[in-house]
Design brief:
9 helices; 8-stranded mixed sheet; 36% helix; two-stranded antiparallel sheet
């Protein structure tokens, strides 16, 4: 069996030039099979052998396809510095931000499968704020590190003040300050600093840590941006699907998530050249894994299967977790 792969597009799926029968059935698979998010989450954690607490990130990824607004709310699992995976997600089937009910429903799904006691941290950006939302996080004792808007009102004597006023004395980006407040039916802490572009960065947490520690936890949010980049234009081209049905889109993301894990596992086992001129590896773990998978897919399905099996067998011994 001969396969064609484009060297100029290293992350484009290889195509079989003559018979398309196998690929023709892919549409039927997504229309006939409804994959369960709960079963997927259990499975992907089970295959990694992970028993600890989760570092979670919450964000949205969206794009337009004709009149359809594909808009995912994703709860991702930050496995390590270089690897994150979608863990729980829902197609909001609308444009715009998620509401509090949709966010809490997603967290309830996590609770049903793993329990809130397995959350080590939850990180999110300024989109994910609100009285009911923060009150629920505090009530359920979910450790969070969420950036808030600079005009967030904080209690101050008889009249509330904007959060930015408490940090307006900053002159340098390395300066930090920690403010403690009783809000949202609990004690919360506001850690503030200036970004390199002189914007206020104010992160709220229900964890008693230093300002620098809270800000450091929030910086882990970048992992979900990297995840979306790998799923989309710089990796698996998730946004190129022509699917519109919500359940089929969810099933597609489940399949892509396993693909992302497999590529990361394969890349973990490969030797990655070091680029001296930039002081970094030439490829990321994920990209190296994708290149290797493409090569094996083009040359030998047997070797591809063996490589995937070997990667899973040695998973816990490879320093992945």
């Amino acid at each position: 069996m001969q396969w064609e792969c484009s060297a100029s597009k290293p992350f484009t799926l290889c195509k079989q030039p003559q018979s398309q029968s196998g690929f023709a059935k892919s549409g039927a698979f997504f229309s006939e099979e409804e994959l369960s998010i709960r079963d997927y989450a259990r499975a992907i954690v089970e295959v990694t052998g992970f028993k600890g607490k989760f570092d979670l990130c919450l964000d949205r990824s969206n794009w337009d396809f004709g009149e359809k607004r594909v808009n995912y709310l994703v709860l991702s699992w930050r496995i390590n510095k270089g690897v994150s995976l979608p863990l729980m997600f829902v197609d909001l089937d609308k444009a715009g931000n998620s509401n509090t009910t949709e966010r809490l429903d997603l967290l309830e799904t996590f609770k049903d499968v793993f329990g809130f006691d397995r959350i080590k941290s939850l990180v999110a950006d300024r989109e994910f704020v609100g009285n009911k939302w923060f009150t629920a996080l505090n009530k359920n004792r979910i450790p969070y590190f969420i950036r808030v808007k600079k005009n967030t009102l904080l209690p101050w004597g008889k009249k509330p003040i904007k959060a930015e006023i408490l940090f307006q004395h900053f002159q340098k980006s390395y300066e930090t300050r920690l403010i403690e407040k009783n809000m949202y039916q609990g004690t919360v802490y506001f850690a503030g600093t200036l970004s390199k572009s002189a914007d206020f960065v104010i992160v709220m947490s229900n964890q008693f840590l230093t300002a620098k520690q809270i800000l450091a936890q929030y910086r882990k949010r970048w992992s979900i941006e990297e995840l979306f980049r790998k799923l989309k234009t710089s990796g698996l081209h998730w946004e190129n699907t022509h699917m519109k049905h919500s359940q089929r889109l969810v099933s597609l993301l489940i399949v892509l998530s396993f693909g992302l894990l497999i590529a990361s596992l394969i890349g973990q086992r490969e030797t990655i050249p070091w680029k001296k001129t930039i002081g970094y590896p030439l490829y990321s773990i994920f990209r190296k894994g994708m290149i290797t998978l493409q090569f094996l897919f083009a040359h030998s399905l047997t070797e591809l299967t063996q490589a995937i099996q070997k990667a899973f067998i040695t998973l816990q011994y490879a320093g992945f977790l």
